[in-house]
Amino acid sequence: MAQKAVCRLAVIRSMMTRTSGTSTTGSVLQTNFIKPNQRLWLQQCSSYSSDQGSASIFNIQDSDDFKDRVLNSKIPSVVDFHAGWCAPCKMLAPRLEKAIEGTKGKVQLAKVDIDENTDLAIDYDVSSVPTVLAVKDGKIIDKFIGLQEAHSLKLFVENLY
Fold first, then answer.
1. Domain containing residue 134
2. Which of 90, 98, 124, 159 is the most buried if burial means most Cβ atoms within 10 Å?
3. Which of 45, 70, 78, 89 is an active site residue?
């Protein structure tokens, strides 16, 4: 939890600095662009979510990462194709995380941002978000599109183990 707070603070500090201005009020708050040497560190910070201590919930970085962590995994996976601008995705995420946490490591959750991983979205025929896949032994065994109730998600996840 402390790392999450430190990362949030670092992101805010990297984007905002106080500079002296010509106004009579003193300093002016000004937005800056993120410096290239900060991008990797901020990317790592932005991958933190409410699953801070959980190794069974993670963000997919690219196609190779997806292959390694989902398709080649011995642990069944729920794959959440989402977008930052999607309101139903934002509502589904905590429900999915809660369902995954209830499995105590028997199922993992891979989060795929379709804006950052368009090739993966195309490869898996994602035409709307949220789209959620159930993957076991490298094969898709179930799928749903759209927001679901918590009890439906629990059953969806339990069918993987």
1. 54-158
2. 124
3. 89
Spatial neighbors of 70 by CB under 8 A, at least 6 apart, are 60, 77, 79, 110, 135
Residues 62 and 32 in one domain: no
User: Within this chain, do residues 59 and 135 fall inside the same structural domain, yes or no?
Assistant: yes
Residue 34 is classified by DSSP as P
Catalytic residue check, 45? no
pTM over 0.70: no
Which one from 45, 78, 83, 86 is the annotated catalytic residue? 86
The confidence score (pLDDT) of residue 54 equals 61
pLDDT per position as a tens digit, 15-70: 333 333 333 333 333 334 444 444 444 444 444 444 444 679 999 999 999 999 99
Q: Output the domain CATH number for residue 95.
A: 3.40.30.10
